[in-house]
Amino acid sequence: MSLVRQVLGLCLYVLNTLVWFVPIFVCGVLKLLPIPALQRLFSKLAKACASMWVACNNINQQGISPYQLKVTGTESLTEKDWYLVIANHQSWVDILVLQRVLHRKIPFLNFFLKKELLYVPFLGLAWWALDFPFMTRTSKSQIKKNPKLKGKDIETTRKACEKFKTMPVSIVNFVEGTRFTEEKHQRQKSPFKHLLKPKAGGIAFVMQAMGEQINQVVNVTIYYPNGVPTFLDFVAGKVGEIHVQVELMPVSEKLVGDYSRDNEFRVQFQGELNRLWLEKDERIECLVETAE
């Protein structure tokens, strides 16, 4: 039965993606017209199509691969605000879970993506049409060889965020920078029991570029009581249960500053992020104990 669910679910995900890819891509092309009013119109239409894509994926989950979803903390969310969404990251399933939990509660989720993902068939062009920011991160070694590159990341982020000033947006950042595995956890010597070390740079640059616009931080904790699923396990209906806790936080002064040049602020920002991650780790531990 799980194999049937898996095949049928995968087919529906692919079909749904292809159906909505066409109007999203067309809107993306039409946004190239140098007329601001039309650019805003087609941007809204592209987001509306993407929202329908998510809605159809959610129906697929409920019908083909159902699971029990336990959610807390979404009562005060609104589609008329600007948000930074941060979450722990364990599986590609996290993205589908976030989309389902936050769908039509906050503006459409925009992910900061590696530039290489632009070349993913169909999805890469859809992400481009939806104004997902594609980033090229400058490494410390590159800056050491060419000091002129210092500050380029924040400038790239600022330019990417310019598109978000005309309508409410939700910017998603998986703060750990990669999916959690025991191997990575041990290699990092992470001080957290259930999490990798948080990386401050990504969200610090977003806050530096859009600090005056982002009104609140949506801090999401995702926990899988039956073990972290792969995407195929998820589609096959093997997940069973997922816990999602949402905490809505105001943007404090501790989160807005010149991360790239102010050493004191950089230390303060990383300290605040570590505090949030410690609380998240304790939250997951409570969920683990409750499940046992």
Explain how this protein is built:
The chain is of the alpha/beta class. The protein has a six-stranded mixed sheet, sandwiched between helices. α4 links the parallel β4 and β5. The longest helix is centred in the N-terminal third of the chain and has 29 residues. It starts with a helix and ends with a helix. The relative contact order is 0.16. The model has no long low-confidence stretch (mean pLDDT about 90).
Topology:
Elements: H1 2-30, H2 36-64, E1 68-72, E2 83-87, H3 93-102, E3 109-111, E4 113-114, H4 123-129, E5 134-135, H5 140-145, H6 152-161, E6 170-174, H7 182-188, H8 201-210, E7 216-223, H9 231-235, E8 241-250, H10 263-291
Properties at a glance:
single chain, 292 residues, two-stranded parallel ribbon
Give a quick precis of the structure.
With 292 residues, the chain is α/β, with parallel strands linked by helices.
Count of distinct strands:
8
Q: Number of helical segments?
A: 10
SS content category: alpha/beta
- Indicate the low-confidence ranges by residue numbers: none
Give the helices and strands as they follow along the chain: HHEEHEEHEHHEHHEHEH
Biggest sheet, strands in spatial order? 1-8-7-2-6-3
Q: Give the strand content.
A: 5-15%
Main sheet record: 6 strands, mixed
- Which outline best applies? globular
The radius of gyration over CA amounts to 19 Å
Overall pLDDT: 89
Fraction in helix: 40-55%
Oligomer: single chain
N- and C-termini, Cα separation? 28 Å
